[in-house]
From TrEMBL:
<keyword id="KW-0732">Signal</keyword>
<dbReference type="Pfam" id="PF03150">
    <property type="entry name" value="CCP_MauG"/>
</dbReference>
<dbReference type="GO" id="GO:0004130">
    <property type="term" value="F:cytochrome-c peroxidase activity"/>
</dbReference>
<protein>
    <submittedName>
        <fullName>Cytochrome c peroxidase</fullName>
        <ecNumber>1.11.1.5</ecNumber>
    </submittedName>
</protein>
<dbReference type="InterPro" id="IPR026259">
    <property type="entry name" value="MauG/Cytc_peroxidase"/>
</dbReference>
<feature type="domain" description="Di-haem cytochrome c peroxidase">
    <location>
        <begin position="50"/>
        <end position="256"/>
    </location>
</feature>
<dbReference type="InterPro" id="IPR004852">
    <property type="entry name" value="Di-haem_cyt_c_peroxidsae"/>
</dbReference>
<keyword id="KW-0560">Oxidoreductase</keyword>
<keyword id="KW-0575">Peroxidase</keyword>
<dbReference type="InterPro" id="IPR036909">
    <property type="entry name" value="Cyt_c-like_dom_sf"/>
</dbReference>
<feature type="signal peptide">
    <location>
        <begin position="1"/>
        <end position="20"/>
    </location>
</feature>
<dbReference type="InterPro" id="IPR051395">
    <property type="entry name" value="Cytochrome_c_Peroxidase/MauG"/>
</dbReference>
Length: 430
């Protein structure tokens, strides 16, 4: 089908007045133009023992220094694979992190070659080279090759870093033998030694050494390392958190009745006057490899340490306040929104994009929200910082942020209906 192009005003008129058939014709032409394809389902892993091991490890608190946290603590399937906190709590529950826990839906897709909000873990599948915060894992000839040879993706590499983050899962020096390690490699070795002595919390009748050797039959017990842990957790996540049966995905597969008229009109706004498609591209409406600055207000534990996202990772001021453009799969289930949970609902997110500068300068933390935090919080509201955040959003990636979108109220409502209803997979909406 050859794409049909409409001016913004003509498209606005059409989506509000078009019949169902006309609306489908408009949308399918736009889908073709933007090359939006259905999400491809990952096939079952033939190594079922590896997936079983990963399932146990995903919920294993003995991987954390003080035995208080597991991956599932912050990525709970019952709460949209997040913790539903604006900013995740520290390992001891006494403070908060700088960002929130991103969702895990479709996190194992082959297109995901970088991880974390700032993309600090990367994997090049063509060269099998990792780029991570640990130098011993990086480059074509890594010092810790025994670990990188066990890791097969950015997802598997990502899994091992929260284990050695003091405020996430490790705990503080003096609290446990793993936190007392001199470096990441030593801490990872201590985690392996500990886990060899443990039975899975989910099933005390099992034995971790036996589970590892079944999952990795060509590896001897003395050669087990943290890479095997990361790869097993990734294998579980890749299968467990797939989501590809929302009304939107069924519509992409050719079912014109999968979405309601209101949802379709919202999708038209998404691709038209809302300009959402500029960043939220691809099968998931967010490829996971695009990073952008959208002038999100910055806030966190007081005294505030400013989080500059990729700018801090890359040591590049041109990337200040750049964060991953997230997938919108099951977005209804993953509130609060933005990398730091700034907005509590999708209506607020839409208002942000409709009036970026206004929302940036007027952002405040309500007393009710402050009372929910274990520590006092502060907002970055100094004029110089606001100017820096605003200028970062004017990089040219999303030039529409320079001016208000001036969406009509009905367009905002259609957009919200599309995101809340059409992007939600009933499998996860429980």
């Amino acid at each position: 089908m050859k794409p049909v192009f409409f001016s913004v005003l003509v498209l606005l008129s059409l989506i509000n007045k078009a019949s169902a058939d006309e609306l489908d014709h408009i949308l399918r032409n736009r889908i073709e133009f933007y090359n939006i394809r259905p999400i491809e389902k990952n096939p079952p892993n033939p190594n079922r023992d590896l997936v079983t091991l990963g399932k146990f490890l995903f919920s294993e608190k003995n991987l954390s220094g003080n035995r208080r946290m597991s991956c599932q603590t912050c990525h709970n399937p019952a709460t949209g694979t997040t913790d539903r906190l604006p900013l995740s709590q520290s390992e001891n529950g006494k403070s908060i992190l700088a960002r929130n826990a991103p969702s895990l839906f479709n996190v194992g897709l082959k297109t995901r070659t970088s991880m974390f909000w700032d993309g600090r873990v990367k994997y090049d599948p063509k060269t099998n080279v990792f780029t991570t915060p640990e130098e011993a894992l990086n480059g074509p000839n890594p010092k810790a090759r025994e670990i990188t040879e066990s890791l097969k993706s950015a997802l598997s590499a990502q899994a091992i870093f929260p284990l050695v983050a003091h405020n996430e899962m490790l705990g503080e020096v003096g609290e446990n033998e793993i936190a007392n390690a001199g470096n990441n490699l030593e801490a990872w070795d201590r985690i392996i030694e500990r886990i060899k002595k443990e039975s899975p919390t989910m099933d005390p009748t099992e034995n971790y050494v036996k589970l590892f050797l079944k999952a990795y039959p060509e590896t001897s017990e003395d050669k087990l390392n943290i890479g095997h842990v990361g790869e097993a957790i990734a294998a579980f996540q890749r299968e467990e958190f797939q989501s590809n049966d929302s009304p939107f995905q069924r519509y992409l597969r050719g079912n014109n009745k999968a979405m309601t008229v209101a949802q379709k009109r919202g999708f038209a706004v998404f691709m038209g006057r809302g300009h959402c498609i500029n960043c939220h591209q691809g099968s998931e409406l967010g490829k996971g490899e695009l990073f952008a600055s959208v002038a999100t207000p910055e806030w966190g534990a007081a005294p505030l340490v400013l989080d500059r996202g990729q700018g801090d990772v890359l040591k590049d001021i041109k990337r200040n306040f750049f964060y991953r453009v997230p997938s919108l799969v099951n977005i209804k289930l993953t509130a609060p929104y933005m990398h730091n949970g700034t907005y509590q609902n999708l209506s607020q997110v839409i208002e942000h994009y409709d009036n970026v500068s206004g929302m940036l300068v007027s952002f405040k933390i309500s007393q009710e929200r402050q009372d929910q935090m274990p520590v006092k919080v502060a907002v970055a509201n100094q004029q110089a910082i606001l100017d820096d955040i605003w200028l970062a959003s004017q990089s040219g990636l999303f030039p529409e942020l320079k001016n208000r979108l001036r969406l009509l109220e009905r367009e905002k409502r259609y957009l919200e209906i599309f995101m809340e209803e059409a992007l939600t997979d009933p499998k996860w909406d429980k």
